[in-house]
Amino acid sequence: MDWQRLISNKRLGQEDRHALRHDDRSEFKRDSDRLIYSAPFRRLQNKTQVFPLPGSVFVHNRLTHSLEVASLGKSLGDDVARKLTEVHPELRGTLFEEIGTIVQTACYAHDMGNPPFGHSGEKAIQAFFIEGPGAGLEKDVSRRFWDDITHFEGNANAFRLLTHRFLGRREGGFVMTYSTLASIVKYPFSSSYAGKHGKFGFFATEEKTYQKIADELGIIRKDGSAEGICYVRHPLTYLMEAADDICYEIMDIEDSHKLKLLSFEETADLLLGFFDEQAKQSIRRRIEEEGVTDRNEQVVYFRACAVGLLEAECVRVFVEREEEILNGTFEGSLIQHISELPCQAYRHCTEVSKDKIYRSKAVLDVELSGYKIMETLMEALIGAAVEPDHFHSQQLIHRFSSQYDIQSPDKETRIMAVLDYISGMTDIYALDIYQKINGISLPLV
User: How many CB atoms lie within 10 A of CB 170?
Assistant: First the structure.
């Protein structure tokens, strides 16, 4: 793949206007602004990241997580651009120097397709069709559609949210640049290629859109048939993924200290575990010299040091493995290829997180409640989509926003409209609809 072709400011849905654009360097910034000012991005403030919302101690939600990932993504992209323009001087003065902004925008968007209640929300949608009341629908829909909904994925839904033409909206969805859209897709293949991993990058309804973008940018195609397509990643996707991996793991540890799931000593050991003894002593000495005695502030400093180290390591891996990345032969994530000591420390953080954080009572309570809420919403609203002529179905259908094609004569389109509606809900809104459906709450008269 070629950088000059991979970085394009052509906009989806406005290809005919591309030749008229002259202010090239502002196009990727416009992508960024367009997301920040959008309603789906704003709704991330009320979507669970890991811990319950709200609480007496403020921890990360999807919005604060996305902002931090974007900040780190900008640093990763800018540092890679600086180093690679030294290696490839012909890239200076080109759109390549804007990759920091492209990665930043991809990071803003990476969680926008996630349903309420995090991964338990995804699982509830999948389970409804695999083992719940929706299992009987398999005979009524196409194989491609069934693969999509039984593997329902927040990543694929983000691409749909940004590119699909919802009712009353313009062609091209958010009308983003090709390079930004390609950088969002971590799993650039159809659901038929998902396998046991379960992840995929786009629904069948958006497959042609992704194919058009990928072919325009010269992204290598690995396979394709009537059952789906499979490409290698756009190189900048690795930087978006690295920013997410770092923030997800390290910031959850800081939150866990605030919530007293981890002691100060445990937290310090985890965050300083990325450094050798000499570096650890230097970090502790710096804290003493600056008179930082507050333990929460000490954890913040440890976290900043760990994030800084991991950022530098991922930049190094990307630059050193650039040829493999451009050839589509690079395997795994950037984090998996960092130096041995920080790699071991990262794996240790992952193990501790699974044991002490993600299996904690607070997290499990959210997952249990969220799963039940999502299960109930799916049963009621999919039921309405499948049998739209029933009286209760019509009552439920009238709750849908006009952008969702719930009145379509096509059953698959109606089912997809339900998934669009539910996945766009905040946690609080999903709870509110759940209570109204079950007669638990009534509007005040």
Answer: 11
- Kindly tell me if the per-residue pLDDT of 52 is higher than 80: no
CA distance 269 to 298: 12
List of residues 6+ apart from 20 with CB closer than 8 A? none
Give exposure, 301-335, as e/b (b: 16+ Cβ within 10 Å). Answer: bbbebbbebbbebbbbbbbebbeebbeeebeebbb
- How many residues would you count in the chain? 445
What single string gives the DSSP state of each residue in 254-282? Answer: HHHHHTTSS-HHHHHHHHHTTS-HHHHHH
pLDDT at 360 over 70: yes
Give Cα separations from 385 to 137, 151, 204 (angstroms): 12, 20, 20
Give the tens place of pLDDT for each residue, 282-303.
Answer: 999 999 999 989 999 999 999 9
Cβ(70)–Cβ(108) below 8 Å: yes
Strand blocks (E) in 201-344: 221-225, 228-231
Query: How far, CA to CA in Å, does 136 sit from each of 4, 179, 412?
Result: 49, 40, 14
CA angle (282, 284, 288) in 5-degree steps: 115
CA nearest neighbour of 156 among 118, 132, 185? 185
Q: Distance between terminal CA atoms of the chain?
A: 62
The whole model's pTM is what?
0.93
Q: How far apart are CA 31 and CA 105, in angstroms?
A: 7
- CA dist 364 and 357 (Å) reads 10
Using 50, 70 and 90 to split pLDDT, how confident is the model at 232?
very high
Beta partners for 221? 231
Instruction: Give the separation between CA 302 and CA 266, rounded to whole angstroms.
Output: 12
Residue pair 217/209 in contact (Cβ under 8 Å)? The answer is no
Q: What is the Cα–Cα distance from 9 to 178, expressed in whole angstroms?
A: 6
